[in-house]
Known about the structure:
There is one protein chain. This protein is about 65% helix and about 5% strand. The protein is built from 19 helices and 5 strands. The protein has helices spanning about 5-25, 40-45, 65-75, 90, 95-110, 115-135, 145-150, 150-160, 165-175, 185-200, 205-215, 220-240, 265-270, 285-310, 320-335, 340, 345-350, 355-365, 370-390; strands at about 40, 55-60, 270-275, 275, 395-400. It is globular, with a radius of gyration of 21 Å. It starts with a helix and ends with a strand.
Amino acid sequence: MKRFWFPISFLIFLILEILLIWIKTRPYGHYSLSSLVGIWDGFAEINPNAVDSGFVVFRSGGYDGQFFYLVAKSLFTDLDWDLIVDSYFFRLHRIGFSFFAGSLSCLFGFEYYPMIALFILNAAFLASYYALHSFLPDDKKIYSILYLFSPYSLNSNLLLVADGFFVSLAILGIFFYYRSDKIYPYGILSVLFFTFAIFTRELGIFLLLPIIFQTVLNKNRKQTFIFLLPLFGFIFFLVWTWGISPNHLGTNPLGFRDMTDYPLFGFIKSFYDDGKFHLSGKESIKLLLFAQYILLSVYSLRKILNLFTNPKSLMSTRDLLFIFPILASLGIITIAEEGYWRSFDNLSRMFTLPLPLLIYLHTRNPNRVSRIFLGSSLLLFIFLILRIVLLTQGKDYYLSP
């Protein structure tokens, strides 16, 4: 039976995701898959040539999947960057997923974008699941199931946003990095996956910094240079895009200060409306995510203190590569403004990367804190399923002409 649980888990996951997609898209008939993109009427109107004919457009509210779609259209069609989104440069700098989905959509037709996006997201995710499974000790491989049924990656992929894709690239980059000493081409693949990860989310930089730090300590100049290349490439891309003068900076150009607040002020403010404090059953999931934040913080601080009590271990330990991105994710959650804390979809996406990294660390050195975190992730997975099955309702929409 042990031989078959891995492919069986693949099959169960695919069946579950197909059912969830069917439930989410059922209110929109045979136009359903385009509803996953989450296109809002406002952006469809100000980008009249961008939205494909027959796509579902919501009259009230969309979601971030629309921005990856619109950026992909601007990359691979004759829009000539004549694109208006909420924040032009913020969206443009996270170009990775739009590039992959857009290139295949350009080849097969953008009317198939939702299907292509789902294929890319799931292909990358299942490949990363295989990589994590291979990476874990033989007697701990069952823990990879917790990643396969990650509520964070699943929710991200169902929303056609790039967080799950970014994590898949990160895991594949780590997988090939730790095998590059045995098979030389794996080192090239590692650099490529890390590069794609950085261009998908800037958080990928924190995957490279521990590697560069260790190569410098070990005086491995060749590896230091190789793993600096993705950083140089991304910095060059930033400088180049800042030199672009788009027709419109966006309906709501976002700066760093617009998306951040003082530590945990966003969490506190999310309980207030018009100056009045409120606490209801709806806040329970937010409180569970906050509890996960506390658990991650305790675990990470303990781990990093243990690492620095033995400075020599910093030159070779794998744990640094796994704990540093978790600390970076915690930093982002800490200073997130209240809008992130008010939305399960937004807040849960911030935990997408820490889960598989913590799974690896837990299999090497399990403790009560990591065990509680992984258990609470299972609770959130159940919540996500129930949320989709019981609360999914059709929104007011029309079809793009």
